[in-house]
Specification:
The strands form five sheets. The chain has a five-stranded antiparallel beta sheet. A four-stranded mixed beta sheet has the order 1-2-4-3. Strands 13-14-12-15 form a four-stranded antiparallel beta sheet, with helices on both faces. Mean pLDDT is about 95; it is low at about 480-484. Among the domains are: about 105-220, 2-Layer Sandwich (Uridine Diphospho-n-acetylenolpyruvylglucosamine Reductase, domain 3), CATH 3.30.465; about 225-340, Alpha-Beta Plaits; about 345-420, Alpha-Beta Plaits, CATH 3.30.70. It has 18 helices and 19 strands. The chain is an alpha+beta fold and about 475 residues long. The longest helix is centred in the middle third of the chain and has 16 residues, at about 295-310. A hairpin with a 4-residue loop joins strand 18 and strand 19 (about 390-395). The protein is globular and about 75 Å long.
């Protein structure tokens, strides 16, 4: 691919003229919030941050960038965890912030669809659907700040995957600006369209490397008549899996099934304001389960399942939400898990997926392996047990220097990922690849898969201006000639 250009002052003025000077950020102070992700693992530098007002301005920016070989880094709410939204340290790239593209263009209750712009905050999309009497089921801990364009570009998962699928499965159509500035107007709201390649799928999970999503047509669902929530105390992940099977067989739809270890709950109680333990004594593990359905029998079925769980030794205690406030308190514990780890020191992250049936074995093997590698480290495995995705995070030993612990990131990743691959799993379940896992792909993708991915990149972005250095691993010596 052609080497990218470092924009000079004249070129920066041309970019600024597209958005207007007010929305072309140049000072270090103005650019700072866009150059660092919230965990401080990835930081970068940028020549400018552009905040376009609409799709037309995005198209003009990309057309100019393509003509001048200027690197563009698309960014949504800057909540990503793998560095895909952060520019490199060269200072030559331009951050393209989509936050001003924040309109709800249409809500169609008869078609159960809505069209929203990429900069819409996820929580606002949820509220718009709710106001129309519908449900948009994508739900994440960061939903108050993450943007739907970023959610789709990273194929976000969240707590509703068990019932509704990942972000990819919630999309009917897209509007995308291509690298050369052309606009693909693919905002179709059809359930069936068998007219060739499914182009929208190419951009979902592509992390802005093939095009910039500017709007999306999303699926809406009927709101469940009843939604019952329970926080359940269990001995361990094996019992959690048995409980999941029992809930699936009891009637109603299991719409969330989240596992939390006691150590994670303790972190939340210590560090997250408003968190409260609903039980009188600690328990080794917890499950936050939600079951939905159309009739009053949903709660009865859940209560009967929990009662059998007590009798069979699967459950040691449980609390059923009696109000929306109590339900919110239960979810506050779950959503606080990511935030609460930071005050405890360094945390080495793993976003993995294994077959659901193998999840208890994975947690046991990985916990044992990291403790053997670094005695005193504190595994915090939590997340979406129902769909096989757990965030296997490891907090530093108490008293160890944060930097010394984080210096072991790659070694610990290698230990955990080896177990994942032995169990036919994935090293990235819902957070994407970005920078963090880019160079791990050759170990988990076949040469054929990597070649197909590179061919797509070359076809859609021949000059390599879109999110340079993200997702695709660098070519190894000898591969350059083959790629030409």
């Amino acid at each position: 691919m052609t080497l990218l250009n470092r924009p000079d002052e004249e070129l920066l003025q041309r970019f600024a003229a597209i958005t207007g000077e007010r929305y072309a950020l140049r000072t270090d102070e103005d650019k700072a919030p866009y150059l660092r992700e919230w965990r401080d693992k990835f930081t970068g530098s940028a020549a400018m941050v552009l905040r376009p007002a609409d799709t037309r301005q995005v198209a003009q920016i990309l057309a100019l960038a393509n003509c001048t070989r200027t690197g563009i880094v698309p960014q949504g709410g800057n909540t990503g965890l793998v560095g895909g939204q952060i520019p490199d340290k060269s200072g030559a790239q331009i951050v393209l912030c989509l936050a001003r593209l924040n309109k709800i263009r249409n809500v169609d209750t008869q078609n159960n669809s809505m069209i929203v712009e990429a900069g819409c905050i996820l929580e606002h999309v949820q509220r718009a659907a709710d106001k129309a009497g519908r449900l948009f089921p994508l739900s994440l801990a960061s939903e108050g700040s993450c943007q739907i364009g970023g959610n789709l570009s990273s194929n976000a998962g969240g707590t509703g995957v068990l019932a509704y699928g990942t972000a990819r499965e919630l999309v009917l159509g897209l509007e995308v600006v291509l690298a050369d500035g052309r606009i693909w107007e693919g905002l179709r709201t059809l359930r069936k369209d068998n007219t060739g390649y499914d182009l929208k799928s190419l951009f979902l999970g592509a992390e802005g490397t093939l095009g910039v999503i500017t709007a999306a047509a999303l699926k809406l669902f009927a709101k469940p008549a009843r939604l019952e929530t329970a926080l359940i105390c269990i001995p361990g992940p094996r019992e959690a899996l048995e409980l999941l099977h029992d809930l699936n067989a009891a009637g109603g739809q299991v719409t969330a099934f989240e596992i939390m270890p006691r150590i994670g709950v303790e972190f939340v109680l210590r560090h997250v304001p408003g968190a409260r333990d609903p039980f009188d004594e600690p328990h080794p593990w917890y499950v936050l389960a939600e079951v939905s359905g159309d009739g009053a029998g949903v709660r009865e079925a859940l209560e009967n399942t929990l009662m059998r769980g007590f009798e069979n030794g699967l459950i040691s205690d449980a609390a059923l939400a009696q109000s929306e406030t109590q339900r919110g308190a239960f979810w506050h514990l779950r959503h606080g898990l990511s935030e609460a780890q930071k005050p405890e020191g360094g945390s080495i992250k793993h976003d993995i997926c294994v077959p659901v049936a193998k999840m208890p074995e994975f947690i046991d093997r990985a916990s044992t392996a990291v403790r053997q590698y670094l005695p005193g480290c504190r595994p915090v495995p939590f997340g979406h047990l129902g769909d096989g995705n757990v965030h296997f995070n490891v907090t530093q030993p108490e008293g160890m220097a944060r930097g010394a612990f984080l210096a072991r990131w790659e070694e610990m990743n290698a230990i955990v990922h080896a177990i994942v691959m032995d169990m036919n799993g994935s090293i990235s379940a819902e957070h994407g690849i970005g920078i963090l896992k880019r160079d791990l792909l050759p170990g988990v993708k076949s040469p054929v898969e990597l070649d197909m991915m590179r061919r797509l990149k070359t076809a859609f972005d021949p000059l390599g201006i879109l999110n340079p250095g993200k997702l695709l691993p660098k070519l190894l010596p000898g591969e350059e000639d083959e790629a030409k």
